# Entry
Amino acid sequence: MTRPRLLASGIQGKGPGVERRSVLAAGVALGAGVFVGPVPAWATPAPRLSADPGAAGRRLFAAGAYARLDEVLPQLLVGAAHSMEQGPAGAARAADVWVLASQLAVKHGRTEAAGVYAERAGAAARRSGNPVVLAAAARAAATPLRRTGRTAGALQLLEEARTHLTAGSRPTAAELDAAGMVELTAAYTAAQAQQPSTARDFADQAEQTAARLARHPNTAASRPRELTAGQCALYRIGIHRRLGDVDTALAHARRLRPAQLPTAERRARAATDTARALLDAGDAAGAFAQLRLVELAAPLEARRPSVRTLTRQVAELRPDLPGLSDYAHRTAVSPLSPA
# Structure
């Protein structure tokens, strides 16, 4: 695949005022005018962020507790805005919160808001000068970019983020973890754009990175690793389904065990992607069985707009399935707050 022109030097050690003429510097912010929706101005007092303000929020997100996260996020966002003034470390903490806000907006189906939050995450990440933080912001930005037809920009952004993470001869475990997740995001993005060779290349790279990471001792127990063999298998389901290779997608689904995925949100995502692949294969009953697993893993996942659409598709094909009517009624109303 064709590689974009990358930065000539690394990110770490650069001050926030250093100009970075690259897509990583400018592209994380998505460009002026791409997303015009305002970020809410919350009226609560502005707290100072703790050493890891996003930790509690990440735990709620991982558990699929989106309604509770909606309640606590406003205070975190106010704190994030003020943390930007606390130097590179404060900017990194702020970026973590903005990334979380963007991810939650995606769960709501609010692409425009996700882009706005990702833009704020990018600004904070650039100020932090930390390539791991920049990678998280790039991944957050990639989702609204690809959902609005800007796949090329998303892939360029992700490729450059990966390059900075792996520029050294001996990347740290945190850098490998971030690089592998960037590769998986890029693989899915390329698959959605019907670029099979690029998608498979990135997916292969992610599996290689996961193997390298597995050889590193895990000393950061406070922030579990995202990149695992199970995570790679989960992404493969969606990647191959997007490429139209449903048999391969389902083969990966059969090999994936829920215990390989450490969070409720990831287990629900695996069941959702498997349900979509089964529905593509014409197996509405199998898809409904997976939807039940979505609700079992994380009940609010079953009420997300995209998952409720999937439920309606199953009901259109097999309205006679036992339990489907009750399931559809139970999950019909989303508890997620509007923008």
About this structure: Residues 22-43+51-165 form one domain. The CA atoms of residues 38 and 304 lie 23 Å apart.
